[in-house]
Amino acid sequence: MSDINDQPTRRDFIHVASVSAAALGAACVAWPLIDQMNPAADTLALSTTEFDVSGVQEGMSVSVVWRGKPVFVRHRTKAEIEEAAAVELSDLPDPQTDADRTPRPEILVLLGVCTHLGCVPLGQKATDPKGEWGGWFCPCHGSHYDTSGRIRKGPAPTNLVIPPYKYISDDVIKIG
Amino acid sequence: MSSPKLTNPVARWIDHRLPVFTFLHHEMHEYPTPKNLNYWWNFGSLAGITLVIMIVTGIILSMHYTAHVDHAFQSVERIMRDVNYGWLIRYIHANGASFFFIVVYIHIFRGLYYGSYKAPRELLWMLGVVILLLMMATAFMGYVLPWGQMSFWGATVITNLFSAIPLVGESIVTLLWGGFSVDNPTLNRFFSLHYLLPFVIVGVVVLHIVALHRFGSNNPLGIDVRGDQDTVSFHPYYTVKDMFGLSVFLTIMAAVVFFLPNSMGHPDNYIPANPMVTPAHIVPEWYFLPFYAILRAVPDKLLGVLAMFAAIAVLFVLPWLDRSPVRSATFRPIYKIMFWVFLLDCVALTYLGAKPAEGIYVVLSRLCTVYYFAHFIILLPALSVFETPRSLPRSIGKSVLGGGNGIPAPAPAAAREKP
């Protein structure tokens, strides 16, 4: 082969440029086709919920619907708060202090979705099993959560998620 | 390629311009097929016919089904109670899914026993694994459509598997859901894809058959066809045999459809979906249980998901893991035992997948999972080196007609590869 055939030519440049332009165009067209699967505007519009926590008696738990998922609001007893605060961080798979998880120790707000594969843990009703640490127990694959909603045992990798929320008055929280 | 003797002038006119009759004659009539195929070779055509049954009943069901969270459950109950023969068509479709998997699993284990995945049929085997994956996706999305409790929570757990992917996992799950939980957008897209994927399966089945007809069927002896004396034409010999097998299969399927239509389902799916309450004991459909057991056996979320997908992915590379030159287990004394142990292991995983993940079940699931992968990754490659196969018959014809033994055993792969 002569040297001239090994050199890039104007024709090679045109080939590369055409294919690149076509690939870029294809990627631009693909994006709307993929992004249509993401939450639509009306789904996003429903993404906040307000709730009055004063109705939740001590020792009681309530589930609130937020974005189609349950949010657990538990009015914890003194014993439960002490238990949650007394845990050594080194005992936790996903270390976090109880104070970091709730601004008001007696009202704990959690996303009621197991961080393993998304089941709703048991522990909201008085008759439910609450797991070995008195918080919540996920029956699907056996994850145990403590009274602060932190993972203690089982396949779930992280603590129950704290949804974004704030007190918009003394007793009303706005989730989302 | 010989042409059919067409007497009808219209057929001749058509065939000259569009050789469909020649094609069908070649591929379904004179197609040479080993004369020693046993009844385990019925399951390929059974799978194809089951696919047709599923598509026909599915198209009919979609004429009465409403893909909306407020109406889906009711529309399925309406099919069951009000639509003429709706109960029959839905029970055929629901049980047909289970029978489809029974047939395909038997078809796969037949391939494993007789070494049908070995050269030159590697791509044929891999296309089969693609069909299995598509079937799993289709079956999963179909199970979501009635929008019962198991539909909803099955969809939640399985889509959440993708949240195990580092960094982008949560975004992918939101993309799959079209919202922040399994909801109406999810149901709509699952319906759309559940309708689409069976036709994709048909496409891959066509490729599967093209690849099959390149070298023809493997056979119980696992030796190559050496000439016309080893084969018979597909029609009438195997068309008749397949029809007989089909009538037995349809008899069993009809018995289940008419007398035990809910035996393979779960009663919780007759409770409408409730996103606030997870059923106490959720299990997938029986055909996913081995993979579910593997998922739960691994104590880490990401590794568990990877192990589950790897359990199927390993099938793609099977032709290169098993290096033994002998196909059929009939002539592989150690592999024959290993095959049955492996089958038992899969049955055990199916059983364990249905049990709660606690105590002895977790320990057994882990042992069975380790054995599942060891079978493919350690035992099979090692066996190709150490096993001495029995002597192979000279030809299929000789073996069928008697007096065919005499070829010395092929040396183990290790010895064979030395120059």
Report on this model:
The complex is a heterodimer of chains A (176) and B (419). Chain A has helices at 3-6, 10-35, 41-45, 78-86, 98-101; strands at 49-52, 61-66, 69-75, 107-111, 134-138, 143-146, 151-153, 165-167, 172-175. Chain A has 176 residues and is α+β, with helices and mostly antiparallel strands. A three-stranded antiparallel sheet of chain A has the order 1-9-8, with no helix packed on it. Chain A has a three-stranded antiparallel sheet with strand order 2-3-4, with no helix packed on it. In chain A, strands 5-6-7 form a three-stranded antiparallel sheet, with no helix packed on it. In chain A, a hairpin with a 4-residue loop joins strand 8 and strand 9. The model of chain A has no long low-confidence stretch (mean pLDDT 88). Chain B contains 17 helices and two strands. Chain B is mainly alpha-helical and 419 residues long. In chain B, helix 4 (72-81) crosses helix 5 (86-113).
- Main interface: chain pair and counts: A-B, 27 and 34 residues
- Give the overall silhouette of chain B: globular
The SS-based structural class of chain B is mainly alpha
Radius of gyration of chain A: 26 Å
Tell me about the biggest sheet of chain B?
A: 2 strands, antiparallel
What is the N-to-C order of secondary-structure elements of chain A (H for helix, E for strand)? Answer: HHHEEEHHEEEEEE
* Poorly predicted sequence stretches spanning 5 or more consecutive residues of chain B: 414-419
Instruction: Compute the average pLDDT of chain B.
Output: 92
The proportion of residues forming helix of chain B, as a percent range, comes to: 55-70%
Strand content of chain B: under 5%
- The tally of beta strands of chain B, per DSSP, is 2
What is the CA–CA distance across the termini of chain B?
Answer: 40 Å
How can the largest sheet of chain A be summarized? 3 strands, antiparallel
Distance between the termini of chain A: 68 Å
DSSP summary: helix tally of chain A: 5
As a whole number of angstroms, the C-alpha radius of gyration of chain B is 24 Å
Strand content of chain A: 15-25%
> Multimeric state of these chains?
heterodimer
